[in-house]
């Protein structure tokens, strides 16, 4: 029996208690003719994993079962293919997003919205997660990655990238449209870049100066430090920028969401890219609130293509697999500049 290393979550607890344990478990193997086996080279660390590990999202059914291997933005090399595989070859680089599978036959799937499928499977919510050395997946839900893309560069595209891209598209970007990104971190810094590709005026908001520095470095037209004192913060925003045409929220905070809503002009759009409640909403202002989370297989392929064509800058730092607890703890306390990537 071949073995692999994996960081396994067996009990929900604060990240300070180091709940992920390095184990040697049986290596995944191909069980279906349409599966591929990937040797993982990089897996991005998403804040949603932190919420799942600490039990914040139990009410949403996350994680659905224990034990589990977290990790849902994965890039690696195909080392074996099933007898029916036609889309991948051994030696090719492939990526896996949070969308691990769907029924492929319901109305959502038929119309290219398989990420909304009621039967959708999520990567990293089972023993098939990226905090490991190997993973299998059906060829239909893996995305080709150009050979020249470094795996540690490409991995964040498979959650942070697609989440940011879908949120920007939901904000209906256009030239000079004023879009505010609330929460410029691992996802938000990519939203800044995607919005700039659409020629928007982009304002980055964050509590951390280091996150604001990242936003400015990658092209934000302006950055403003977030202040929990909403009246003072909104006064400052209006003084510097006026009201926004649209706001994108990645901070899982009710107060930030409320502030973003109030920073947008009447008839504007607020895109929520995280779990959370909408505290207050004045219907008389005719604002639109939209939710968005990951995307379809086509969306994922588009993100890789756009990153390649526009030489998208991804701010990341790599860490060894066994440091997953430490990385998540740093993420919790905003010590990660943008995206952390684990390398087995």
From TrEMBL:
Zinc in keyword set: yes
Keyword Zinc: yes
Family matches, as InterPro entries: ADH-like_C, ADH-like_N, ADH_Zn_CS, ER, GroES-like_sf, NAD(P)-bd_dom_sf
Gene Ontology molecular function terms on file: alcohol dehydrogenase (NAD+) activity; zinc ion binding
Entry keywords, A to Z: Metal-binding, Oxidoreductase, Zinc
Source taxon at top rank: Archaea
Gene3D superfamilies noted in UniProt: Medium-chain alcohol dehydrogenases, catalytic domain, NAD(P)-binding Rossmann-like Domain
Any single Gene Ontology cellular-component annotation: cytoplasm
Protein name (Swiss-Prot/TrEMBL): Putative zinc-binding dehydrogenase
